[in-house]
Write a structure and sequence with these properties.
This protein has 184 residues and is an alpha/beta fold. The protein has a domain of 122 residues: Beta-carbonic Anhydrase, Chain A, CATH 3.40.1050. 45% of the residues lie in helices and 15% in strands. The chain is built from 7 helices and 5 strands, in the order H-H-E-H-E-H-E-H-H-H-E-E. Strands 2-1-3-4-5 form a 5-stranded mixed beta sheet, sandwiched between helices. Strand 4 and strand 5 form a beta hairpin. The longest helix has 22 residues.
Length: 184
Amino acid sequence: MTPEDALKTLMEGNARFVSCSLLQRDHAKARRATSASQSPHSVVVCCSDSRSPPELIFDQGIGDIFVVRSIGCALDELGLGSVQYALQKLGARLVLVLGHTGCGAVELALREANSQGPLASVVSKIHCAVGEGCVPGDAVARQTRATVCEIMALAKALRIEGVRALGAVYNLDSGRVHLMKRRL
């Protein structure tokens, strides 16, 4: 599937999610069909927030999307390695980085640049991406864009052809996914 077709599939799924008309799926059949291998059409990098499950937001079934979740969509080596795996080994060519309104990780990075423990590296990374004095809505977009740039740099460095990475923001209230413009 081309990145354009994959994006169309995701956005059509989001329209079904918003209108509460999700597809009925035979999950047992899908499990059997994907038990030996997978070939997801897209990679979705999204926040770990319990209110933003990408399989539901995009009305996708078993085997349709490869999901990498991390608070604030901030990727470390493990997350980038997961994206690399999906691109190199599974053949996905669309990577959608999905930020969301009301992101607690981004809001934390705006309030507290100095956290403790493992959280500190995530907060620091988000803080560096969004900068000082940014409002939460802009900060989510900036963090999402920074992750898109990281993924494109990874694809370029590894010479993975045909990859399209783009950012989007999921609105927790409406359920709609809004694609971001190429540049902020």
